[in-house]
Design goal:
The chain is an alpha/beta fold and about 425 residues long. The chain has 2 domains: about 5-275, Rossmann fold (3-Layer(aba) Sandwich), CATH 3.40.50.150; about 290-430, VC0802-like (2-Layer Sandwich). It has helices at about 45-55, 70-80, 90-110, 115-120, 130-140, 175-180, 205-215, 300, 305-310, 345, 365-375, 395-405; strands at about 5, 15-20, 30, 60-65, 85-90, 120-125, 150-155, 190-195, 220-230, 235-240, 250-255, 265-270, 290-295, 320, 330, 350-360, 380-385, 410-415, 425-430. Strands 1-6-5-4-7-8-10-9-11-12 form a 10-stranded mixed β-sheet, sandwiched between helices. A 7-stranded mixed β-sheet has the order 14-15-13-16-19-18-17. A hairpin with a 6-residue loop joins strand 14 and strand 15.
Length: about 425
């Protein structure tokens, strides 16, 4: 194990990046070593996770992040949970950036008691070597029996890759578990472990992760957590284990609002991953004029909980037309009554009534026919939600905007491709 870095003594000199995080409070600046910023957890995500974690019982001891990067997540944990931290990072410059950020966050949040700041420690070294790290920590604190209250692991993985294998993670899960198992504190529900993993893991890879976990902690409780900041994208995928798993809830979806003051939406439930990805089964049902189309948040559908949420808010009369891809859609006979359900308008991309069905492709040659029907239906603005070539999309959208701006329509609408057919649906918002 390498250098010991104390947050109270850490210097930002030589750190090449200092940036404002758009999701943080005014004046909060984070330091990063070379190429550290793209890998850092956004403060809003880190804080949201820490607030949720604080609801659970943790064993006594230190919060450990054994691949802490720029240290933003472990700093958020300490700020909310009020425990000292042990941060380990292989890159010495990045380890120092972690200590600097930890200190700055502590100061910027106006903390008065410095106990946890003074007790916290960062190490430049191998995050798999639990015994050496504990020896360093014990030497620092004077307590030979230091334990870990929470093991957080966000392993590095190749950048700019559409998929990741478990072997590409550094450090590897099994090596970390082997190095730290004996040093973890425990409650009657087991240790507290949070694995921050690639959102691109396949369903089988998630099951492989569970298998590795089971080798060290058989039958440990598990809650998979998908976190999204919008645009239908899963930003974070995590596995919560042991004392921080949610009893009888195998899956959890968290949607963080762009409004920093708004609490995240959370929905949980579902079946264990071993029973399948839980994506709804799509039908080949043909659309009908007058019925409604709703496009759901694709990240929410991906985690396997959308069906349960629809049932929970009383929406049962519908058909899944598409459950995968960017625009999962359901068709239903009546307008959705969602006004009384928090976050419904965030979970739902858009919803409208079908007023025209085109049996032709939307392109530059046919756009005028689409405009004509929009005018007939008193539509002044069209949003294209059909997949188009990137070079064509602005041209076709521009044609709609120019032609409809000269009309006196009073309604808004959208165009949506019906999956597995050449039909395009013209819908009005109601």
């Amino acid at each position: 194990m390498g250098d010991i870095i104390k947050p109270l003594e850490a210097s930002s000199e030589g750190l090449v990046e200092s940036v404002k995080d758009a999701t943080s409070a005014e004046g909060m600046i984070f330091f990063h070593a070379n190429e550290g910023k793209p890998l850092a957890t956004p403060w809003q995500v880190a804080l949201s996770r820490a607030i949720l974690l604080n609801k659970y019982e943790l064993p006594e001891g230190y919060i450990l992040d054994c691949a802490c990067g720029s240290g933003i997540q472990v700093a958020a944990y300490s700020a909310i949970i009020k425990k000292p931290v042990l941060g380990i990072e292989l890159n010495p410059q990045r380890a120092r950036a972690s200590a600097v950020n930890f200190n700055n966050i502590f100061i910027q949040r106006g903390e008065k008691k410095i106990d946890n700041l003074a007790k916290s420690l960062f190490l430049a070294g191998d995050g798999r070597d639990g015994t050496s790290a504990i020896e360093k920590l014990s030497s620092f604190t004077g307590n030979s029996n230091e334990k870990i209250a929470l093991l957080h692991l966000d392993p590095a993985r190749p950048r700019n890759s559409r998929s990741h294998s478990l072997d590409e993670m550094q450090p590897r899960l099994g090596e970390v578990f082997a190095g730290w198992k004996q040093h973890l504190g425990s409650t009657d529900k087991g240790p507290a472990i949070l694995l921050d993993l690639s959102p691109r893991l396949s369903h089988q890879q998630k099951l492989d992760v569970e298998e590795i976990v089971e080798q060290y902690w058989p039958s440990i409780a598990k809650t998979w957590t998908w976190t999204s900041r919008g645009k239908g994208r899963v930003d974070r995928l995590a596995l919560w284990l042991g004392s921080i798993a949610e009893p009888n809830n195998n899956r959890r979806f968290i949607r963080i609002s762009p409004d920093l003051k708004q609490e995240p939406f959370m929905f949980q439930g579902g079946k264990p991953l071993a029973e399948g990805p839980e994506l709804p089964v799509s039908t080949n049902r043909m659309p009908k004029r007058g019925e409604y189309v709703t496009i759901l948040d694709s990240a929410f559908v991906e985690c396997g909980l959308a069906q349960y949420w629809l049932d929970n808010i009383g929406i049962t009369d519908f058909h899944w037309i598409q459950s995968e891809g960017r625009r999962p859609q359901i068709h239903h006979p009546n307008k959705l009554n969602i006004d009384n359900h928090d976050y419904a308008k965030i979970i739902i991309q858009t919803s409208g009534r079908i007023v025209e069905i085109f049996h032709q492709e939307l392109n530059l040659e046919t756009v005028d026919e689409f405009v004509e029907q929009a005018v007939i239906n008193d539509i002044s603005k069209i949003t294209i939600r059909s997949p188009l070539e990137p070079s064509l999309q602005p041209k076709i959208q521009g044609s709609f905007d120019r032609q409809l701006s000269r009309r006196s329509g009073k309604r808004e609408g959208f165009l949506l491709q019906h999956p597995n057919s050449e039909m395009t649906l013209l819908c009005v918002l109601e």
